[in-house]
Amino acid sequence: MSFFTNLISSRVPADNRLRKLNAIIDWEKIRKIITKKYRPNINPVTGVKPYDPICMFKAILLQSWHSLSDPALEEALRVRFDFILFTGFEIEDSIPDETTLCRFRNQLIELNLERDLFAEINRQLEEHGLKIKRASGAVIDATIIESAARPKYQIEEIVEDRKEPEVPPTSSFKVQRSCDVDARWLKKGKRSYFGYKMFISTQAEDGFIEHVAVTPANQSEVSYLPKILEGMELIRGKRIYGDKGYASAYNRENLKRLGLKDGLMEKATKGEALSHLKKIKNKLISKRRYIVEQTFGILKRRFSFSRSRYLSRRKVEGEAILKSICLNLMKSIRKTEIKPLICLNRLIEG
């Protein structure tokens, strides 16, 4: 350990959350996942050594956690002792500039590595007993994430929430699109949104996120449930909870075919009100569904994810997965504060 590392280590308290995070995660296993696909660019003229991918990934995590721009992240890596200690960027000349950080993040997303890293981090949290390995139920829901860009103007028909878009479009007017070509309009209540829908699946017990998908905002929930189930780890007998937006005969049959319990809320039809038993069922499901609303609240308030920072569906999905990793890590750290784990002994020994 260098003199500088010793100096900043003495300035960062032992109960600092980033120090705890360093102890919880086995970063060498993270390195193996990144280096399987990621190939850093080496300058053929100068032969400058590339940045350590683990240090870079830690920096990207801090960016998502604190909702920093690339220039703000570069500055924080220079001045914040806890950031320096966590990432390992100790020397002034060794700190990556904002362009390098941006390139690394884009490469992670292009290589689809953020999904592999999300799965590995969840697996490690399960190993430490911080996350339930086989939850009894999964709560599914979607929220709107506004686009980083806005259209100059648009004349296309705006789809209402939970209604299928008309095909073909009823309007033949030419539409001037935004620079965010994947984003779409959605009308919810009295307000219209331009952006995306973020679908997540959380554990019914403690709200850890297990699956993330991002679609254009006009994607209907009822037709997207089968796609969500494809990306989830399905265990026979597991109950899938969802609100009225997912209620359909096809979805209920699909759950039954997959050996999953039906936790979808009942939806009234025209001319037929809900029976007393169905209303009771909806109330019972609502008591389990609060956990996903709480998760969305944390993502939007704590991690500032009401609006995306990047353009294109794929980059917004990458951002959503990184935010989900941060949320799961935050929940894990809070659990260690309540019940210390054996893995944290490394902090004391170190």
Description of the structure:
The chain is α/β, with parallel strands linked by helices and 350 residues long. The protein folds into 2 domains: 3-111, no CATH class; 137-306, Nucleotidyltransferase, domain 5 (2-Layer Sandwich). The protein is 47% helix and 13% strand. The protein is built from 13 helices and 7 strands. Helix 10 (249-257) links the parallel strand 6 (239-242) and strand 7 (261-264). Helix 3 runs antiparallel to helix 8 (113-127). It is globular. The protein starts with a helix and ends with a helix. Residues 346-350 have low confidence and may be disordered.
CATH structural fold name of the largest domain: Nucleotidyltransferase, domain 5
- Class from helix and strand fractions: alpha/beta
The radius of gyration over CA amounts to 22 Å
- Report the span from N to C terminus: 11 Å
Please tell me the total number of domains.
2
Give the overall average pLDDT.
87
Number of helices: 13
For the secondary structure, the number of strands is 7
As a percent range, the share of strand residues is 5-15%
CATH architecture classification name of the largest domain:
2-Layer Sandwich
Key terms for this structure?
disordered C terminus, 7 strands, 350 residues, 7-stranded mixed beta sheet, 2 domains, alpha/beta, single chain, globular, 13% strand, 13 helices, Nucleotidyltransferase, domain 5
